[in-house]
Amino acid sequence: MIADGTHVRALGGLPSSLNDSTLAPFFGPAGLRLEDWVGSSAYEDADQPTPSDTDRAAALKDAEAYLVLYFAAPRINMVIADSGIVTFKVDGTSTDQFTYLKPRDLETLRQGWLRDAVSACGRYIIKAGVIIGVSPAVDEET
Predict the structure, then answer these.
(1) Per the count of CB atoms within 10 A, which of 18, 103, 107, 139 is most buried?
(2) Where does the pLDDT of residue 127 fall: very low under 50, low under 70, confident under 90, or very high at 90 and above?
(3) How confident is the model at residue 130 (pLDDT cuts 50, 70, 90)?
(4) Cα distance from N-terminal residue to C-terminal residue, the chain
């Protein structure tokens, strides 16, 4: 695990009240995905106290954090209602209100974080002649 909850919250603009235990289940899938992209040696090096390539380690830390957001988004701080996924929203300084994040909007958000992950570590991805951004229809969720 290269990234930590503090880094994930910072990149995702998540509140500090979202604790590490809520994010913990998503580090495994994020780390596996990133390791598939960049290879075991690059991933393991980035996890060292003094990595051999600090720029690569920083890029992989960001990429892993974005992947945690990608995997966690459907499940954190959300309630599923008949009309969609409910998220809490504060509208300026006026009264609080609930808004509904539709599945399409949620997937748009997730795909943005997936693109951010690829962008963060793109120069370190092992080129294998495959498309990195996998369609949600075939993307395995863990």
Answers:
(1) 18
(2) confident
(3) low
(4) 16
DSSP per residue, 37-58: HH-HHHHHHHTSSS-S-HHHHH
Average pLDDT, the chain: 83
Give Rg (Cα) of the chain.
16
d(CA 60, CA 66): 10
Model confidence pLDDT, tens digit, residues 44-76: 999 999 999 999 999 999 999 999 999 998 887
What is the distance between the alpha carbons of residues 29 and 64, in angstroms, rounded to a whole number? 10
CB 12 within 8 A of CB 69: yes
Q: Which of 51, 75, 52 is nearest to 2 (CA)?
A: 51
Q: Under a CB-based contact definition with an 8 Å cutoff, are residues 2 and 60 in contact? A: yes
Longest dimension (CA), the chain: 52
